[in-house]
Every structure is written in structure tokens, then in C-alpha cells.
Write a structure and sequence with these properties.
Layout (H helix, E strand, L loop, with lengths): L6 H18 L9 H34 L24 H16 L2 H4 L9 E2 L4 E2 L12 E2 L2 E2 L9 E2 L8 E2 L19 H8 L10 H10 L1 H4 L15 H13 L6
Antiparallel strand pairs: 1-2, 3-4, 5-6
Helix pairs in contact: 1-2, 3-8, 6-8
Bound molecules: heme C (2 copies).
One heme C binds next to helix 4.
């Protein structure tokens, strides 16, 4: 096991300072009394992340390497049909079910499922293994005091310069787990379908709001821009939104 203070880490921290300076340290925009503080706290956070990563890498390198790069169930980047591909299904109810099944290629993709777990712990990677290190959802899905998601997941994907089993740490300003009533892990397509259109379990959305959410929510958008080293969800968010709309227009039937 490599020591976490080894030469590799020192090199990596230095490179990461150089590499991330312009984009990561938003502090440069804050001249005056906030400037130095901002930069210092970003530096601290960077150091914290690099330390954590070095530890993770040294502990679980072999295991994670075996499971990550493009290995598993994903069938390539595009792989999503548009609603017109289902036009030949004459019966609207049957067409509706087929449309949802197509949209579920996105919903049940690991990029989405990893944040919609049935437990209090997110999952990671294409094989949807338990998040390492252990983290827990807390009251609003963003972690608990002392172990918040944002300690590691910043407001954007963070590309790593050090060689690691994954190329980047995912990021988004609202990074956190979907509420437990929106859990998808372990459920069938039919169960997820019923849940997604149930306002008691979908955040109080009617079908129109659900379409809009699917088509334009910027957290969902992360699924198609998940950062270096991670396979994107199939198709595009636009196409996904069109499928959801077509599913609703045909009566929102569940498979
Ligand atoms: C100590 C640092 C750390 C904390 C805290 C942390 N994460 Fe992570 N998380 C990571 C790293 C590093 C990765 C990338 C690992 C990988 O891709 O294999 C990751 C990956 C993920 C992924 C997988 C993305 C994918 O599709 O593969 C999800 C989901 C996730 N984290 C959610 C969360 C949530 C939600 C929280 C808070 C409750 C959280 N994380 C807290 C470090 C952390
Ligand atoms: C970083 C974690 C995260 C990722 C990744 C993520 N979600 Fe979510 N999702 C959430 C959170 C948090 C909510 C609740 C917020 C809300 O309702 O606006 C949510 C809510 C939803 C909802 C509305 C509620 C429901 O269940 O009907 C849909 C639809 C949804 N997500 C779809 C997706 C899809 C599709 C993907 C992948 C392309 C995805 N999500 C990836 C965290 C995530």
C-alpha cells in the first residue's frame, strides 16, 4: 500500500494546484478582503480531497480498477430511440408502454440509479457498488454534519490529474441523494413508472411538471455530462424529455 504522503501525492497536489487554479478557485473574482480567505479555503478543500483520494486509491485500487472502465452493462453512448420509432404501434396504450420502456433505458442507467438508492447510502460506478467511503443521506440528502457531500462533490465535475481508478469526482451545486420516496434501486420498470407519476412520491409534480423536469432539470443533465472516466446516460436529455412527453401524451401507461 502506498503511503498517503508519498512522492506521488506531493506531485499530484502540486499539479492539481496548477491545473485547477483558473477554474476551481472562483476566489480570484473576489478581490479585497474576501479574496485570500476564499483562495485559502479552496486550497484546503483541494488538499482534503486529494488526501482522501490518495487514501481511497491506495486502499481499493485493485478492486475498483476491476469494476470501472466501461466494463459493465452499458451498451454505448447513443443507444436511445426517438418517439417516432414507436409510431407504428397502433394501440396508444401499447405505444405508451413501449415509450416508457425506452425512457427507462435512461432512468435505470447507473448514472441515475446511483443517486436514487433504496438505502441511505449512494452507489457508485457502472456496477452500482456501495459508495466508498461510507456516507449517509442525512435529513435532505446532502449528508450529515462533518460528512457532507459537498466536502468532496463541488459545484462541477473535478477532473483528476493523478492517475486513479476514476477520472473525476462528480460535481453539481445541488449534489445530493434523491429523497427516499423517489428510490428506484431494486424496483421493476413498472414499479418505477407508477412511482414517477404519483404526486405523493415524485415531489408533488403533475405530469406537465414532470415532463418539464425531465427535459430541463440541470441536475438530471449531469447524467449526460458525468465527467471524465464515466459513461454518460444513453441519448440526450432532449430526447429523454421527448420520450417522457410522448409517454404522457399517449396516456402515461405503465409497462
Ligand atoms: C470523502 C469524499 C466524498 C464524500 C463525502 C461523498 N462522495 Fe460521492 N464520490 C466521491 C468520489 C471520489 C466519487 C467518484 C468515485 C467513482 O466514480 O468511482 C464519488 C462518486 C459518487 C457517486 C457516483 C456517480 C456515478 O454515477 O458513478 C454518487 C452518486 C455519489 N458520489 C453521491 C454522493 C452523495 C449523495 C454524497 C453525500 C451524501 C457523497 N457522494 C459524498 C467522494 C465522496
Ligand atoms: C446527484 C444525484 C442525482 C442524480 C445523479 C440524478 N438524480 Fe434524479 N433526483 C435527485 C434529487 C435530489 C431529486 C429530488 C429533487 C427534486 O425533486 O427536484 C431527484 C428527482 C428526480 C426526478 C423527479 C422525481 C421522481 O422520481 O419522479 C426525476 C424524474 C429524476 N430525478 C430523474 C433523474 C434521471 C433521469 C437521472 C439521470 C439522467 C437522475 N435523476 C440523476 C438526485 C439525482
Amino acid at each position: 500500500m502506498r503511503g498517503i504522503d508519498g512522492p506521488a501525492l506531493r506531485r499530484a497536489s502540486k499539479e492539481s494546484d496548477l491545473f485547477t487554479e483558473p477554474s476551481f478557485s472562483r476566489g480570484v473574482h473576489f478581490k479585497g478582503r474576501h479574496g485570500p480567505f476564499f483562495q485559502a479555503s479552496h486550497k484546503r478543500r483541494e488538499r482534503y480531497i486529494m488526501r482522501t483520494l490518495a487514501l481511497l486509491t491506495s486502499l481499493s485500487c485493485a478492486a475498483v480498477l476491476a469494476s470501472v472502465p466501461g466494463s459493465a452493462q452499458i451498451s454505448g453512448g447513443s443507444g436511445l430511440q426517438s418517439p417516432s420509432a414507436f409510431a407504428s404501434i397502433a394501440d396508444p396504450a401499447a405505444r405508451s408502454r413501449a415509450l416508457f420502456t425506452e425512457a427507462a433505458k435512461v432512468i435505470m442507467n447507473p448514472r441515475c440509479m446511483n443517486c436514487h438508492p433504496a438505502s441511505d447510502r449512494p452507489t457508485q460506478g457502472n456496477d452500482m457498488h456501495q459508495h466508498s467511503p461510507p456516507v449517509t443521506r442525512g435529513n435532505n440528502g446532502t449528508g450529515v454534519a462533518g460528512n457532507t457531500c459537498s466536502a468532496c462533490h463541488t459545484d462541477r465535475n473535478f477532473t483528476l490529474v493523478e492517475r486513479s481508478s476514476y477520472g473525476s469526482i462528480p460535481g453539481h451545486p445541488r449534489w445530493g441523494l434523491a429523497p427516499i420516496e423517489m428510490a428506484w434501486e431494486g424496483k421493476s420498470i413498472g414499479q418505477i413508472c407508477l412511482q414517477i407519476k404519483d404526486p405523493n412520491r415524485n415531489g408533488g409534480r403533475n405530469l406537465a411538471l414532470l415532463t418539464e423536469h425531465a427535459a430541463s432539470d440541470d441536475l438530471i443533465a449531469w447524467g449526460w455530462a458525468p465527467g471524465a472516466g464515466r459513461d454518460p446516460a444513453p441519448g440526450t436529455q432532449e430526447l429523454f424529455g421527448q420520450l417522457i412527453k410522448a409517454w404522457i401524451d399517449t396516456g402515461a401507461q405503465c409497462p
